């Protein structure tokens, strides 16, 4: 069984475990399992071992680690900059790009003494829900290698599930941390918009993107969040609001009813059409467990939920079409070779900037990314702007108001993370809308900028994980972790591990 | 009637700086049409009195003092370019001859 971050950190402090040993165990698992899982885009073995030895030297000198991440392996998504590392967003167009600086969260991990072992596979530019859109091949779900791990942070989630690390980091734009966390049976947080600095995160949709931690347990995820959250002047969307430690709040339950003061809202729209029976039943069983722990549950309504998906697929591609305009083969990444071999060019002329950029992007970007750029360009173009983008921004207000309204009555919303259990490769490849539906229940909190946590809450009859989603008001991360921790302590889903 | 046709995709590809293969044009026309048929559901909602949401959290304008700092060395920044000469970006001509 792979140990939690908490257990490893305690062992490290008690000198029962060295950093070198912890990192070596992780690397051994990576060597053994990576050929069948493909969770990682890069492994920086020597650098990780050097860092581990440095941590051990500091421990030997009597240093007491300030962070539970100290000396322990972590994995970052392939869109977070680590100075000197090739960071590709799992895209061909960024081949050869080496990050010139550390992301703010990377700096914080270094300060905490975390050992970065590599970068995780993802859907290209974080666009997708299965990692099937990675230009380097998909990641396999550790619970069933014929099924997707979710996405876009599928590699980050699979890395935790497979025991490559106890915590990892992803990014969540419409569900990209929570959905793979649910599919891989691990914990994943999408923080309040602005809580974790995005300086050094390669942009997809800037009004939605948020870095999020994943962990084996709620405690592990909270510790990872504590390490990287907080104000950063380098990110103008970063919130300058005081931040207290979330793990400090997570204690052993002092009574049999630790959720006695918690008012849970159960959004009826999250249990309606399109939600698989087994997922619904598993989540309802989790809600009953939370009631036994003292929580009061009441049905609430978020009436605009059904419009979330459409709203998201106007706003996110619009922002992406603008953010991705920079990949034109001039400043970084790859450039298409002069003149295609295919003889498609009827007039052989001098190559112009426009032709170079068009071909570079046509060749270098994958089908899903191109699809979203086309959607974004369409909805922002003259004549359509008001009808689509303008309308979507107004819908976003209504979705936000739905949440404001229910949070006057309840402390937290609880429902499923995903409408279905992990699906098979290729199952949703034909119709892009089917894939987009995967994010039906994660998108609303993203549009409203709210924190949301995915926690394992059961297994289907096919032994596939099901995730529970907790959504809270802005800046309620500590509350979400506390509620999830109490639930976790009363159940054993977090102790289940895939047979690998 | 389709909301998006192949001619539109070709035009969007020009605006998006994407060179598409003929089969991609057909595929994207079909797929975008499916997506926009779905998105059309938004017309059911009367948003005439609803203000657009520009920022998810009410954040005040962010200002900072204009202080010189040491940015990354220029030679390091340009070193990621696919084509360089004397630390300068090399690009094909940007003006196209009028036919």
Task: Give a quick set of tags describing it.
heterodimer, A: 500 residues, alpha/beta, eleven-stranded mixed sheet, 15 helices, 11 strands, globular, B: 99 residues, mainly alpha, 2 strands, 33% helix, flat
Helicity of chain A, as a percent range: 25-40%
Order of helices and strands of chain A: HHEHEHEHEHEEHEHEHHHHEHHEEH
Number of DSSP helical runs of chain B:
3
Structural class of chain A: alpha/beta
The residue ranges of chain A in which pLDDT falls below 50 over 5 or more consecutive positions are 340-348
Amount of beta strand of chain B: under 5%
- Side by side, the strands of the main sheet of chain B go 1-2
| Residue-averaged pLDDT of chain B | 88
**Strand order of the main beta sheet of chain A, please?**
1-3-2-4-6-5-10-11-9-7-8
Distance between the termini of chain B: 36 Å
Report on the structure:
The complex is a heterodimer of chains A (500) and B (99). Chain A has 15 helices and eleven strands. With 500 residues, chain A is α/β, with parallel strands linked by helices. In chain A, strands 1-3-2-4-6-5-10-11-9-7-8 form an eleven-stranded mixed β-sheet, sandwiched between helices. Chain A is globular. Helices cover 33% and strands 4% of the residues of chain B. In chain B, helix 1 crosses helix 2. Chain B is mainly alpha-helical. At the A-B interface, helix 9, helix 10, helix 11, helix 12 and helix 13 of A face helix 1 and helix 2 of B.
Write a concise synopsis of the structure shown:
The complex is a heterodimer of chains A (500) and B (99). In chain A, 36% of the residues lie in helices and 12% in strands.
How are the SSEs ordered, and which strands pair?
The complex is a heterodimer of chains A (500) and B (99).
Chain A: H1 5-13, H2 19-37, E1 40-43, H3 45-60, E2 73-77, H4 104-112, E3 115-120, H5 154-161, E4 167-172, H6 178-184, E5 187-190, E6 210-215, H7 218-228, E7 263-267, H8 277-292, E8 296-300, H9 308-323, H10 353-364, H11 367-380, H12 386-406, E9 412-416, H13 432-436, H14 443-448, E10 452-459, E11 465-471, H15 477-489
Parallel strand pairs in A: 2-3, 2-4, 7-8, 7-9
Antiparallel strand pairs in A: 1-3, 4-6, 5-6, 5-10, 9-11, 10-11
Helix pairs in contact in A: 2-3, 5-6, 9-11, 9-12
Chain B: H1 6-15, H2 22-39, H3 74-78, E1 84-85, E2 88-89
Antiparallel strand pairs in B: 1-2
Helix pairs in contact in B: 1-2
